[in-house]
Amino acid sequence: MRRLTPFTPDPALEPLQLQAEACLEGTLLRLRYRVLGPLEVLAIPAPASGPPRRLDGLWQGTCLEAFLAGRGCSNYWELNLSPSGDWNLYRFDAYRCGGREETRISGLSASRWERPDRLELELQLNLERLLPPPEPLEISLTAVLEHRLRGCSYWALRHTGEAADFHRRDSFLPWE
Questions:
Q1: Domain boundaries in the chain?
Q2: Beta strands in 26-62 (DSSP E)
Q3: The whole model's pTM is what?
């Protein structure tokens, strides 16, 4: 597991840790996120009562994200997963350009485990329809955590700009 850090340090966030890992097995990408600490300070959506839905705007609250691209390609994908199980996948033609739902993927397999001081989410995404194998992958693991009193904070493996911006390609890391 690799540790994500908030873009803006805040003493209210210090008791929290956010970890993420990605594992690529053939064309199957497995992502796992772990939030550790006093979860009661966060606005965490409850598990959906029905099947997970594809929804817009998940990044406006607690949302675990990944940005994916083929190495050297200008297009990329943004994956959003709410702790509720709701999700979305967007395709971009270039930096913040041409964003639209990726229709080649119609569902995700996700699991959730929770204790008072730990929330874990895991998802699987088959990249076969997105990137032809053995396309080298670049990835950025990110998250939005909504603090009940302080609003949203933006977490990533690497922040590269003057503002929190997960779409910056220089924040994507080679993943093989």
A1: 2-165
A2: 28-36
A3: 0.95
Polymer length of the chain: 176
Query: Using CA atoms, how far apart are residues 116 and 118, in angstroms rounded to an integer?
Result: 6
Give the pairing type, strands 109-115 and 17-25: unpaired
The region that residue 81 occupies, defined by phi over 0 for left and psi between -120 and 50 for alpha, beta otherwise, is beta
**Start-to-end C-alpha separation, the chain:** 16
Residues 6+ apart with CB under 8 A from 27: 126, 127, 128, 131, 133
Give me the CATH code for the 2-165 domain, please.
2.60.40
pLDDT tens digits, 4-48: 999 999 999 999 999 999 999 888 999 999 999 999 999 999 998
- Mean pLDDT of the region 161-175: 95
